[in-house]
């Protein structure tokens, strides 16, 4: 069975996490025998603009948003403006789709299904919306999705609202969507600690993607990918 290397990155700023993903993606392109990596992380407050992101989706001047302590960073993922911050579980899946299935629609569907099955275990009935990516509870988005794929090697992943400060979403039109709201596990009345939530997700990942996860460390990944500190 295929194995994917798993790392709990803890709390890490968006930019170094983005640069790590870029290095890993390039490594996977150069090493077709490698299956991939899964990173779980929590970011300090940051707004990221995907390839479709419009600054008009900020409801206040960006300078003012930055003055409030938020970073604003451009990203190469798909989608519009989204928010990451404390209390949110972010998963970055960097895999070689040639070892799974060379099908972008299947891949995005699988990311959504991963979250949907996790929420079902917790007693939340979540689903998709035909016109939008991500995972929804009724008319409120609980999980955003964004991906980038280069030569069938993936980057980015999901952002699941756990104990997120939902007030921060009021600064933007999340993912460019104006007609629907956002929610979180906490808002849905689900009490679960972060580590338990992660473990639920890891178990479902192995079943859904038909692979095993191997725990490793950031230092081991950097050595393997040949990342040298500046």
From TrEMBL:
<feature type="binding site">
    <location>
        <begin position="144"/>
        <end position="146"/>
    </location>
    <ligand>
        <name>substrate</name>
    </ligand>
</feature>
<feature type="domain" description="BPL/LPL catalytic">
    <location>
        <begin position="32"/>
        <end position="213"/>
    </location>
</feature>
<dbReference type="GO" id="GO:0009249">
    <property type="term" value="P:protein lipoylation"/>
</dbReference>
<comment type="function">
    <text>Catalyzes the transfer of endogenously produced octanoic acid from octanoyl-acyl-carrier-protein onto the lipoyl domains of lipoate-dependent enzymes. Lipoyl-ACP can also act as a substrate although octanoyl-ACP is likely to be the physiological substrate.</text>
</comment>
<dbReference type="GO" id="GO:0033819">
    <property type="term" value="F:lipoyl(octanoyl) transferase activity"/>
</dbReference>
<protein>
    <recommendedName>
        <fullName>Octanoyltransferase</fullName>
        <ecNumber>2.3.1.181</ecNumber>
    </recommendedName>
</protein>
<dbReference type="Pfam" id="PF21948">
    <property type="entry name" value="LplA-B_cat"/>
</dbReference>
<feature type="binding site">
    <location>
        <begin position="77"/>
        <end position="84"/>
    </location>
    <ligand>
        <name>substrate</name>
    </ligand>
</feature>
<dbReference type="InterPro" id="IPR004143">
    <property type="entry name" value="BPL_LPL_catalytic"/>
</dbReference>
<comment type="pathway">
    <text>Protein modification; protein lipoylation via endogenous pathway; protein N(6)-(lipoyl)lysine from octanoyl-[acyl-carrier-protein]: step 1/2.</text>
</comment>
<comment type="similarity">
    <text>Belongs to the LipB family.</text>
</comment>
<dbReference type="InterPro" id="IPR045864">
    <property type="entry name" value="aa-tRNA-synth_II/BPL/LPL"/>
</dbReference>
<dbReference type="GO" id="GO:0005737">
    <property type="term" value="C:cytoplasm"/>
</dbReference>
<dbReference type="InterPro" id="IPR020605">
    <property type="entry name" value="Octanoyltransferase_CS"/>
</dbReference>
<dbReference type="InterPro" id="IPR000544">
    <property type="entry name" value="Octanoyltransferase"/>
</dbReference>
<keyword id="KW-0808">Transferase</keyword>
<keyword id="KW-0012">Acyltransferase</keyword>
<keyword id="KW-0963">Cytoplasm</keyword>
<feature type="site" description="Lowers pKa of active site Cys">
    <location>
        <position position="141"/>
    </location>
</feature>
<feature type="active site" description="Acyl-thioester intermediate">
    <location>
        <position position="175"/>
    </location>
</feature>
<feature type="binding site">
    <location>
        <begin position="157"/>
        <end position="159"/>
    </location>
    <ligand>
        <name>substrate</name>
    </ligand>
</feature>
């Amino acid at each position: 069975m295929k194995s994917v290397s798993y790392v709990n990155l803890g709390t890490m700023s968006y930019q170094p996490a983005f640069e790590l993903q870029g290095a890993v993606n390039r490594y996977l392109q150069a090493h077709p025998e490698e299956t991939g990596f899964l990173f779980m992380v929590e970011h300090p407050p940051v707004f990221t603009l995907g390839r479709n992101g419009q600054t008009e989706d900020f409801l206040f001047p960006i300078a003012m948003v930055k003055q409030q302590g938020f970073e604003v960073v451009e990203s190469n993922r798909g989608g519009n403006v989204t928010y990451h911050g404390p209390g949110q579980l972010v998963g970055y899946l960097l895999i070689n789709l040639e070892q799974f299935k060379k099908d972008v629609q299947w891949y995005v569907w699988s990311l959504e299904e991963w979250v949907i099955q996790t929420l079902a275990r917790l007693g939340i009935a979540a689903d998709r919306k035909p016109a939008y990516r991500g995972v929804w509870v009724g008319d409120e988005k609980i999980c955003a999705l964004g991906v980038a794929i280069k030569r069938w090697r993936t980057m980015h992943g999901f952002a699941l609202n756990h104990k997120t400060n939902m007030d921060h979403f009021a600064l933007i039109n999340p993912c460019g969507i104006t007609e629907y709201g956002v929610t979180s596990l906490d808002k849905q009345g689900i009490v679960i600690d972060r580590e338990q939530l992660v473990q639920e997700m890891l178990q479902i990942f192995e079943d859904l993607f038909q692979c095993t996860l191997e725990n490793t460390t950031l230092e081991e990944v950097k050595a393997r990918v040949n990342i040298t500190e500046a």
